[in-house]
Amino acid sequence: MTVVDTPGTVKPAPADRTSVGQAPAGRRDRRRTELAEYLRARRARVSPGDVGLPPGLRRRTPGLRREEVAQLAGVGVTWYTWLEQGRRINASAQVLTAVARVLLLDAAEREHLFRLAGVAERRPADPDPVLDPSAQLILDALVPLPAAVSNSRYDVLAWNSSYAALFAASRTRTTDGRFNSLWCTVTSPDCCNPFLNRDEQLPQMVAVLRGAYGRHVGEPAWEEYVRSLQDASAEFRRLWARQEVSSRATSLKVFRHPVVGVMRLNATYLTIPGVPEAYVAVYTPDGPEDRARVERLAALPPGGWTAPCGHSRTGPTR
């Protein structure tokens, strides 16, 4: 049996064994079967006219022929046939992108294709995704609990009034004018920094950022963001150089507010379907005294605070 590394390059197939970072052999076999079935089903749904081909005569099956997909994608017919048969072949992201284009896959379908093929798709994340209007309604309904939507770079995309009040004294902004919770944490002076347990929380925040950065290495926006943090903070440079990686998890954060005092809040993170790498952070009181202070925070008059990092209530200044 042979395996194709890239179209037109054939080499002997290695033994099907599990190594570090690989799925077990049985799971890989099942994934290849799912990939084959998925490709055949998607091919059957694309008519020749959909991709600019004449309908032709005597088509025994609906949709495109395998050789037509291969030709339009710029790959070998044998290679594509083997891919549809679930054979043990490797496919690059570039080739899978070409196949997805021919099969007219949307973003969710393309992501599914890449996942079944065991290939990590690299797509630049949109720093300003379009949030459904219901996101703001949900945030507002969570008051008195502070809550916000952020992306994997810690840019805050939407928030409620309690969250705005919580960060009233933190007015620093990134170099491009964004409200960014990590930037505020590393650059705000001690007098205005809302975190009391900053020394405990900041290493975790940087480790989470390092994990997200691994999906975007080389992207200009990410490289500039990390560079700006390094330029702005010696502490960030030290933590970044440690190469520690972590995932986002519920954690206790201690905040100091100039009006209501100290609050111990548990930060819980919820993902948002359809908005890659965005999440909702909700801060819940750790005890009865903290709850009373959160309620006082939410009751502050709208003119009693400045929105996060100097932004208006309607959204970040660009």
From TrEMBL:
It comes from Kitasatospora putterlickiae. Residues 1-31 are annotated as: Disordered. InterPro entries: Cro/C1-type_HTH, Lambda_DNA-bd_dom_sf, MLTR_LBD. This is Helix-turn-helix transcriptional regulator. Residues 34-110 form the HTH cro/C1-type domain. Coiled coil: none annotated. Pfam families: HTH_31, MLTR_LBD.
